[in-house]
From TrEMBL:
<dbReference type="InterPro" id="IPR051563">
    <property type="entry name" value="Glycosyl_Hydrolase_51"/>
</dbReference>
<feature type="signal peptide">
    <location>
        <begin position="1"/>
        <end position="18"/>
    </location>
</feature>
<dbReference type="Pfam" id="PF06964">
    <property type="entry name" value="Alpha-L-AF_C"/>
</dbReference>
<keyword id="KW-0732">Signal</keyword>
<dbReference type="InterPro" id="IPR008979">
    <property type="entry name" value="Galactose-bd-like_sf"/>
</dbReference>
<protein>
    <recommendedName>
        <fullName>non-reducing end alpha-L-arabinofuranosidase</fullName>
        <ecNumber>3.2.1.55</ecNumber>
    </recommendedName>
</protein>
<dbReference type="GO" id="GO:0031222">
    <property type="term" value="P:arabinan catabolic process"/>
</dbReference>
<comment type="similarity">
    <text>Belongs to the glycosyl hydrolase 51 family.</text>
</comment>
<dbReference type="GO" id="GO:0046556">
    <property type="term" value="F:alpha-L-arabinofuranosidase activity"/>
</dbReference>
<dbReference type="GO" id="GO:0046373">
    <property type="term" value="P:L-arabinose metabolic process"/>
</dbReference>
<dbReference type="InterPro" id="IPR055235">
    <property type="entry name" value="ASD1_cat"/>
</dbReference>
<feature type="domain" description="Alpha-L-arabinofuranosidase C-terminal">
    <location>
        <begin position="453"/>
        <end position="623"/>
    </location>
</feature>
<dbReference type="InterPro" id="IPR017853">
    <property type="entry name" value="GH"/>
</dbReference>
<keyword id="KW-0325">Glycoprotein</keyword>
<comment type="pathway">
    <text>Glycan metabolism; L-arabinan degradation.</text>
</comment>
<keyword id="KW-0378">Hydrolase</keyword>
<dbReference type="Pfam" id="PF22848">
    <property type="entry name" value="ASD1_dom"/>
</dbReference>
């Protein structure tokens, strides 16, 4: 996180005056901006326990040096003995640990508490587990309340044998929803009929219906929230998550593909072992399902423990990136393109943006990044894929050729407002991703907030308007982090917060700012002049060349009252109508909390241009607004 506070906008503490703004009909710039997107990484259980719809936590006892395998989230049923074991004959090399379940009483088993609860609705859940050991009886799989009341159960005939791992599939279809998410999933069996009273279990999985009905897919309500947001791109797989604590812990693309039995999982950067069930292919399917642009980040030779790969070894990792790109974009005649086809995707994907690393200006990485690491990736990828735009993970370097930069900012609302004209200072020779943005602390208070709050969101809005004014230089912008499971998180505030209860999901106040701005993408900026300059009203004007609609986006920050505005678009005549959407919240500190009501109000009105084609309206303190004219312009 770095702060650029060099360009300070003079603040005009004027009130009660009309701001008159005239927008020219031509003379602006062609935008390169995709719009507003998302940045996903395994922080705050954004993947496992979040977007990735798996309901069973610690399903395959995956572990690492940092987070050793354990029986976390599992509990015995009817006095069974549960033991973590590493068998000579594991389910797979990637999943070496399993759970031995042993008991004397007839019906024994185990249960899982999910990602801090399980949402049980009247819908079909798809489950599977692998068992090993001679057993000719049946299994019972069930969803139960934590108090032990069965919500739904199913009998599964055992196919389990002594010398092999056998998969058992089942479905559970409750006929009514549970009263809350304080539920568990259990499997029981008759120990008296099992050889030695014991069986081995691994990869115990349960999915609700997923977004777009994809097997191994994504949680519906969270993907729907991203669809409503209108996200335009996805930057993945991080973030710090890409980097890893050590070189060995980095995100390795080909450990995240193929059958779940061949994915070892990984020590995430964020204090837990991730399953990698949400892997490279699932990220691409996520982009396909939302129709958005992937921004693929590749590991650049820097780990968070400040290890830097030497110049003589960097080519190993450049090759990894090239292999990954071949997997995604190569024809089925290539080695890795053939592998992609084998995993169900014969058609190549298109990758237009590759980011080299993450925040390489931190952790002692900048010198080596500038001297050889960035250029090694840039040269090799550009040579093989000249159509791909390469993004450096910093703006603190001289960018070669047509390379682009990534800028991150975590700060106070005031700092975001003061940086309104940051991008005016840059030329459009290179383009910039605003890959991580968030107002994290109140002005003057050095404390990170739990949730985005309204004045912070308006501060961000001001900054985004400054970026849109320079949309010929900006690739896109995104709040970060994207998601937060409030039952297990490492960082606040976040864009969307949730827990196991799919009805309690809380898109933040910032979400409603980004979402409003994302609804109308400006394809060409238009010069606009005003009687007062910027502050407390900040704005951008432009047009959508597919409809010829004129678009005006604005935010008011720090005014002492309503700001009356007279807005004229050259070529838009008296009588033309426009839709004005204004978002506000009751208090500067208002926030959206999980399970709570949305504090952001939306007021949409239709305005008609008066004499001289002027639209007259006023915007309150701490508001964001978008005005769009009807498409008929003179
Ligand atoms: C089974 O019973 C034996 C003898 O009563 C006892 O020692 C053992 O702990 C029991 N095992 C389990 C898993 O209950
Ligand atoms: C269980 O389901 C998986 C995934 O659909 C499938 O690949 C597998 O063949 C099924 N196994 C059995 C034993 O039906
Ligand atoms: C299950 O049935 C098979 C085949 O009849 C038999 O070999 C095996 O011993 C049985 N297992 C148990 C635990 O009874
Ligand atoms: C992943 O790919 C690299 C080459 O890029 C190869 O050395 C490695 O063995 C592969 N790993 C797996 C698990 O296939
Ligand atoms: C907002 O107002 C406060 C108090 O009047 C002032 O300290 C602060 O600098 C202002 N912020 C901006 C970005 O104008
Ligand atoms: C609209 O603008 C975009 C750039 O934002 C440009 O790529 C496209 O060609 C333009 N379309 C028309 C019809 O002018
Ligand atoms: C277009 O870009 C030029 C050069 O960067 C800049 O001076 C001008 O203000 C921009 N125009 C608009 C309308 O943003
Ligand atoms: C803004 O530009 C228009 C012409 O496009 C001009 O008539 C008007 O005087 C200008 N207003 C200000 C405040 O500069
Ligand atoms: C306007 O918003 C600022 C925060 O930016 C707040 O300090 C101020 O009290 C607000 N003014 C009014 C009149 O509500
Ligand atoms: C919505 O905006 C209109 C026009 O600015 C205003 O008259 C009306 O009171 C607003 N409604 C609400 C609920 O704020």
């Amino acid at each position: 996180m770095i702060l650029l506070k060099i360009f300070v906008v003079p603040f005009l503490a004027v009130c009660g005056y009309a701001v008159e703004i005239t927008v020219a009909s031509s003379g602006g710039n062609v935008t390169v901006m995709l719009g507003y997107g998302a940045m996903e990484e395994e922080i705050n259980h954004a993947g496992d326990g979040g977007l990735y719809a798996e309901l069973i936590r610690n399903r395959a006892f995956q572990g690492s040096d940092l987070y050793p395998s354990s029986l976390d989230a599992w509990e015995a049923v009817n006095g069974a003995e549960l033991a973590l074991q590493s068998l000579a004959d594991p389910l797979s090399l990637a999943l070496p640990y399993s759970m031995n379940v042993k008991g004397n009483s007839s019906v024994i088993g185990f249960k899982n508490s999910g990602y801090w609860g399980i949402d049980v609705q009247a819908q079909t859940y798809t489950g599977s587990f692998w068992a090993r050991g001679s057993y000719n009886g049946s299994f019972t799989a069930a969803l139960e309340t934590s108090a032990g009341d069965t919500l739904i159960s199913v009998e599964i005939d055992s196919e389990s044998v002594s010398d092999a791992w056998v998969q058992h599939n089942f479905t559970l279809t409750p006929t009514s929803p549970a009263s809350d998410t304080d539920n568990v999933f259990s499997i029981t069996f008759n120990a008296a009929e099992a050889d030695g009273g014991a069986l081995d279990f691994n990869l115990i999985s349960l999915f609700p219906p997923t977004y777009s009905d994809r097997p191994n897919g994504m949680r519906k309500d969270l993907m729907e929230a991203l669809a409503v947001y209108g996200t335009k791109f996805l930057r993945f797989p991080g973030g710090n998550n890409l980097e890893g604590e050590t070189v060995g812990d980095r995100w390795i693309w080909n450990n995240t593909i193929g059958p779940l039995t061949s994915r070892p999982g990984r020590a995430s950067t964020w204090d837990y072992e991730e399953t990698d069930g949400l892997g490279l292919v699932e990220y691409m399917e996520w982009c396909d399902d939302l129709g958005i642009e992937p921004i693929l980040a590749v590991w650049s030779g820097l780990a968070l423990d400040e290890t830097v790969v030497s110049e003589s070894e960097i080519d190993i990792y450049v090759q990894e990136a090239l292999d990954e790109l071949e997997f995604l974009t190569g024809s089925v005649d290539t080695e890795y393109g053939a592998l992609r086809a084998q995993y169900g995707h014969p058609d190549p994907w298109t990758i237009r943006y590759v980011e080299v690393g993450n925040e390489d200006y931190l952790n002692g990485g900048l010198d080596s990044y500038i001297s050889y690491r960035f250029s090694a990736f840039y040269d090799a990828i550009t040579e093989k894929y000249p159509e791909i735009s390469i993004i450096a993970s910093t703006i603190e370097m001289t960018l070669p050729g047509n390379a682009n930069g990534d800028y991150h900012m975590y700060d106070t609302p005031d700092a975001f407002v003061e940086a309104f004209n940051q991008w005016d200072q840059y030329s459009n020779e290179h383009h910039y991703l605003l890959g991580e943005l968030a107002a994290t602390e109140y002005n003057g208070a050095d404390v990170s907030q739990m949730y985005p709050w309204w004045s912070g969101s308006v501060g961000e809005a001001v900054y985004l308007l400054g970026a849109e004014r320079n949309a010929d230089k900006i690739i896109g912008a995104t709040y970060a982090p994207l998601m937060c499971n409030i039952d297990s998180y490492q960082w606040t505030p976040n864009f969307i917060a949730y827990d196991a209860d799919t009805a309690a999901t809380a898109p933040s106040t910032s979400y409603y700012v980004y979402q409003l701005f994302n609804q109308h993408i400006i394809t060409n900026t238009l010069p606009a002049n005003s009687s007062t300059g910027f502050g407390p009203l900040y704005y951008v004007a432009g047009l959508d060349n597919s409809t010829d609609e004129r678009i005006f986006k604005a935010a008011v920050y720090n005014s002492t009252g309503d700001v009356p505005i007279g807005l004229t678009f050259e070529g838009v005549d008296e009588g033309t109508t426009a839709q004005l959407t204004v978002r506000t919240a009751p208090e500067a500190t208002s926030a959206n909390e999980v399970g709570g009501a949305n504090v952001v109000s939306t007021n949409t009105t239709t305005l008609t241009a008066g004499s001289g084609g002027m639209f007259s309206f006023s915007l309150p303190n701490l508001s964001v607004a978008v005005l769009v004219t009807s498409s008929s312009t003179a």
